[in-house]
Amino acid sequence: MQLRAHRFVAAIMACTITSLSAFAQSMTPSREQMPEGSVAMETNINQHSYPRLMPDNSIIFRLRAPEAQKVQADICGVKYDMKRDDNGVWTGQTAPQVPGFHYYSLVVDGVSVNDPASETFYGCGRMMSAVDVPEKDLDYLTIKDIPHGKVSTLNYYSKVTGSWRTLCVYTPPTYDANSDKRYPVLYIQHGGGEDHRGWMQQGKTNIILDNLIAEGKAEEMIVVSANSNVNAGMGGYRWEGMQAFRAELVDNVIPFIDKTFRTVADREHRAMCGLSMGGGQTFYIGLRGLDVFSSVGIFSTGMFGGINGAAGTDLDKEVPGLLSDAASFNKKLEAFLITCGEQDPRIEHNKRVAAEMQSHGLKVKFESFPGDHEWQPWRKSLHSFAQMLFKAK
To answer: What percent of the chain is modeled with pLDDT above 70?
Structure first.
């Protein structure tokens, strides 16, 4: 009986190894089989496999699904049909893609699934596969041989939710080596459908800050990315709807960070910024909280218009005195930046609001970058905003 058991286990292992080998061969073809001129996406699990980026920025996807009847690659909402070969391997190529970070899925017989060959990221309210198309001559998104900071994931107890919550913290290169130095803090907020991981993973915050600090273009700072998905109750995209996360940030996150890290715990050494939903949160919590923050960055917010349900914003009503007493805000604001992607439906609304603020004497800078409502303009927004912060007077 014991001999038979050993033979049975050996047979199962041999079968498993054979199956895994066949799967690996379908997902990891030899280098000679790779399309000429193609390179692996940096988000690939296996750098010798698919997806592949072509010289024209089109992307080739590949999936082994012998029983499937139809497979498509869905990237940025555009679906591309894939073709099946005799071995049950489906291959498809997209149109050229603009530089930036793009979520995608594979649609197998009508069911949207993640690509088993890709890393996954929390975006669009679920874990998603993604590709990151590099932009030429944009080396500050590249890891270099310079001193590097550290990204840590920490748990803290929230009195707002009555539960343990998670946040991510970037500490600059000298933090661990210099036990006496204290640092300013940037609180950076993600968009809707994302969470605290977004800025550190998709946004490449640590790479951007490492490069800026090494070049002497930004001060050393701590960057905190908290999860702003806190039940806001009634109020929506208005001050009333921001109260749950305002309490979370001001009464829970900031005290936790000041207790856990060597911060300079005053308003002059705190800044807040955010993208999309996080930009709306920054508008209200940052501009109404200049006793807590001294700098504000609003990236690609839809609260000024450009999305369903958004209407014209009475700035003086939403932030009392913002226009009628701009001089008081100018005295408190060390830096104020509004940005948007040039192909983003929100662009004209953000331009209009920035111009209205400027016409009333408010010192706000507006910048735009090529791209839609996605990570490439937001990375550039952080790159610009970080250089404005915590400068010695």
So the answer is: 89
Q: List, in order, residues 6 or more apart from 384 with CB less than 8 Å away.
A: 337, 339, 367
SS3 string of 11-47?
HHHHHHHHHHHHHHHHHCCCHHHCCCCCEECCCECCC
Alpha-carbon 306 to chain mean position: 21
Q: Which residues pair with 120 in a beta bridge?
A: 129
**pLDDT average, residue stretch 199-210:** 98
- Residue keyed to tokens 């709306």: 280
DSSP symbol at 321? T
Per mean pLDDT, which of 31-35, 62-66, 174-178 is the most reliable?
A: 62-66
Local structure of residue 282 (DSSP, 8 states): I
Assign 3-state DSSP to the chain and report helix, strand, coil percentages, each to 5: 30, 25, 45
Which pLDDT band holds residue 392 (cuts at 50, 70, 90)? confident
Q: Model confidence at 235, in pLDDT bands (50, 70, 90)?
A: low
Cα angle vertex 102, ends 97, 107, to 5°?
95
Pairing between β-strand 335-341 and β-strand 270-275 as defined by DSSP bridges:
unpaired
Does this model's pTM top 0.85? yes
Tokens linked to 69? 């009847």
Across the chain, what does the average pLDDT equal?
90
DSSP symbol at 286? I
Reduced 3-state DSSP string for 231-281: CCCCCCCCHHHHHHHHHHHHHHHHHHHHHHCCECCCHHHEEEEEECHHHHH
Residue 152's CB is within 10 A of a number of other CB atoms, namely 13
Q: How far apart are CA 140 and CA 138, in angstroms?
A: 6
